[in-house]
Design goal:
- The protein is about 35% helix and about 25% strand.
- With about 230 residues, the chain is α/β, with parallel strands linked by helices.
- The longest helix has 16 residues.
Length: about 230
Amino acid sequence: MKIRPLISVVIPVFNGGRYLPETIDSVLNQSYRPIDVIVIDDGSTDNSADIAMRYLPSIKYYYQPNGGLASALNQGISKSDGEYLSFLDADDLWLPDKLALQIKALEADPTIDMVFGHMRNFFSPDLEDTMKANIALIDGIMPGYFKGTMLIRRESFFRIGLFDTRLHLGDFIDWYLKALENGLKSLMMPDVFIERRIHNSNMGITQRRFQSDYLRILKASLDRRRAGR
């Protein structure tokens, strides 16, 4: 009988205790096994630690002083053992067959480095109507080129390297642009793999002062491309 490869799932959390149980459950309810679930607590001051530790030993839990999202992701990667890597924010939800469908696609074509899927947004039930009125929610299903839908071969990930801890926003955009520049091959599957929760603590809302990071990322990518000519 063929031994199925281990998939490591890294869940960074910072004061996300109110949504963390649903997120962890969506991973543990995956139809694929074996999985290696790693929760990295990035200095939370709420009940995130208590919630995460309720899931032991089904998950691994590690605490670190607050260092930012990229730092937490990198810490999770350093604790992982899987042949494949996947990532999930502590407020989003995976659909049950995400990993099973992705691993099947990767094993069917060894030339593919990473697989993405589609996504849909939803308003968190606890979001007040006044907040909903001020948020332009993109309805429907759309391609999700972000880390929450990705499954990647470990060796392919390290061809690019870890996430840039100097960035407050855009850690994955920066990494993905480097992946494209270095020729990593991706597949976008038609299936919906993730539901993204919209609430008043989304990083895009709370970290608006760091949106200049996106311009820095794009400029750095252009500079690298020009230097490679």
